[in-house]
Amino acid sequence: MNRAYLDKLFTVVLAGVLAGLALAAAALPAALVFGLGVKNLMPYTALPEALKTPQPAQRSNLYANDGRTLITSFYVEDRVDVPVGEVAPVMRDAIVAAEDVRFYEHHGVDVRGVARAFTANRREGTRQGASTLTMQYVRNALAGDPRLTEEQRAAATEITVGRKIREMRYALTLERQIGKDEILGRYLNIAYFGAGAYGIAAASKRYFSTTPERLTLAQAALLAGLVRSPADDPINGDADAARQRRAYVLDRMVETGRVSAADAEAAKATELALKPNTTPNDCAAVPADHNDWGFFCDWFTQWWNAQPAFGENVDERQRTLRRGGWKIVSSLDPDVQAKASEQVREIYPETIARAAPTAVVQPGTGRVLAMAVNRTYGTTANPDGQQNYPNTVNQLVAGGGGITGYQAGSTFKLFALLAALESGLPLDTEFDAPRVYVTQYPVGAGPASCGGRWCPANANTYWMDGDRDMWDAFGRSVNTYFAWLTERVGADRVVEMAQRLGIVFRAPADARMAREGAKSWGPFTLGVSATTPLDLAGAYAAVAAEGTWCRPTPVTSITDPGGRTVPAGNTDCRQVLDTEVARAAADASRCPVGDQSMYRRCDGGTAEELAPGLRRPVAGKTGSSERNATETVVAFTPQLSVATIAANPDDPRDAVGGGVQKRQIAAVGRILAWSLRDEPVRDFVPPGQAVAFQHTSPRTGN
Fold first, then answer.
1. Which tens digits make up the pLDDT trace of 388-423?
2. Which residue has the higher pLDDT, 29 or 609?
3. Nearest alpha carbon to residue 634 among 463, 413, 481, 468
4. Under a CB-based contact definition with an 8 Å cutoff, are residues 339 and 518 in contact?
5. Rg of the Cα trace of the chain?
6. 457 vs 472, 478, 634, CA distance in Å?
7. Each residue of 125-162: pLDDT tens digit?
């Protein structure tokens, strides 16, 4: 047994005994010492994961799609780790002087410090713990590791002899396995500096709006002093006490030879010169001049809460978000978001009950570039009688949290069109559409009931009635044509098509009908089910992407604190339509918005003014629910899909009227034009002759 090993063994045994004395302020009975045995005072042979690969709670940051623009942060402890090499040497010296002047001399347990604490405790009745910086790190790491249970974390700070001895044994083992500088860096990243700042990076920002590598002597001494007494932080606590702690640290630095007396005196005379800087926390803390980001942020949290990769339930997933130190690059494009918010307020101001929630989605990825609505995101009280305006945190764009959505009218004809094409019917399928068409589908009493059968009517007899094909019927939005088409292919296939393209039935009655009564749900084709702009933009984006549907996502990438990309941030895309079917649907969708199909078969549309202003190939659809209760516009290019719905979220009986659709068309056109101004002009791929003009067997392959 060599001399070094004997020294360490003596250190452990003596430290274990004296630690108990220091804690209990009385000598441990000899029987206890011998009862523990030398084995139980030896360093551990292995370290727990909390000490081998520490995971202290760190804040997660949510950025815009440029990876630099901060939307907000999420945390229970404002902390972000930095390498020790990025901490100013003066800060490292200050923390050692303040907390453990013999840090570079002991092996994890300072026998002199333990003896000094024991003497002071016996003589003065104080409670000095004699913890080294390494021991403090062990305690904090175990107490803050999110992988441990609440009981395990609590045990790391209990006032017992057993805990103190475990702490010492871990400290000795830790110092055998990693270097002093690494331990110091870990300590600096885990320590609490008061004012909600955990770790040196957060503290540098919180007090001085700077980074750890730029800290001055006066700043470093102040921060080092706060570790022992974080309640004295000069922002919320006692500035004089903070100055006294700073002076104490400077004096200790002089004693250890780290700074000269003259420099220390100069630092003592320096004003605190605080520049407080708070880190935003949660969606309510998005930048004030970008309040509209709050709705996107809110939907991001909904998305995160639904990801099993981050925990078994919502509570676990939220803990993972707020403690995991993730860098989340979102899909939000601040430029597109700004234009969408501007244009939404051209549809409706934020001071009225009616809303115009709008979503912008990227085909082929599902990334959501913008979510806009004419509301202020926040919980500020509204005037009497105004439930959700001008302020709300309700998810009016994406649904959820009690928001089931809005009827989108004839935009749902897309799903009948796709189901018919998939069944083998071509685009030139003709039907002599009457003013009223009596179907086989049973309905209750109402204006669209003929003897208990659903019998929709065309909105404009002169313009809609007569011999129509899919191009013409979709362009002019001929209700009776699509009622007939739905009968031919089956209402259940139309419902299934909508679900396949991401339409979620959030209203219980809609979900029940889709599950139990889809075969008889003929009116579904005319958009009687509630939906959201986000679902609708995503469905039309699948057509733009030639049949590839991507689950709408708020993220571009997610990386952990080690810089590793996690799969949960990947896109979730799948081919849900035969490519030719999707191309044919896109071709027909050019008719409503004033564009021309590849086969020159468009003859009139409900939003013909859209295409000329955009000056690039575009497709889309409009929709009006019964009595114009809601109005909807969807438009897409191969690169972008935009959907907006005008509705009163609080009162479905408040019909918005058909006049608003003109403003919606203009707004959608401007959003597309602005967002694509620097993008190349791309055309849709034309469908083949077969899907355009020939009856075939079902087109379900690709």
1. 899 999 999 999 988 999 999 999 999 999 999 999
2. 609
3. 413
4. no
5. 34
6. 17, 9, 23
7. 544 557 899 999 998 888 877 677 777 777 777 777 78
Residues whose CB is less than 8 angstroms from the CB of residue 694 and which lie 6 or more positions away in sequence, other chains included? 426
Pairing of strands 376-377, 391-392: parallel
Please give the Cα distance from 201 to 209 (Å, whole number): 10
Contacts of residues 674-680 at CB distance under 8 Å and 24 or more positions apart, as own/partner, are 674/335, 674/336, 674/339, 675/333, 675/335, 675/336, 675/339, 675/360, 675/369, 675/640, 676/616, 676/637, 676/639, 676/640, 679/639
The conformation of residue 590, written as its DSSP 8-state character, comes to: T
Bridge partners (DSSP) of residue 372 are 358
Range 70-83 burial, b when 16+ CB lie within 10 A, else e: ebbbbbbbbbbbbe
The packing angle between helices 293-305 and 314-323, to 10°, is 120
d(CA 319, CA 148): 12
Report d(CA 540, CA 533) in Å as an integer: 11
Least confident of 167-176, 516-525, 575-584, 612-621: 167-176
Residue with tokens 């003065």: 124
Q: Exposed, middle or buried, 616 (CB in 10 Å: 0-12/13-18/19+)?
A: middle
pLDDT, residue 421, reads 98
Query: Which residues share a beta bridge with 70?
Result: 63
What single string gives the DSSP state of each residue in 278-344? PPP-SGGGS-GGGTTHHHHHHHHHHHHHT-GGG-SSHHHHHHHHHHB--EEEES--HHHHHHHHHHH
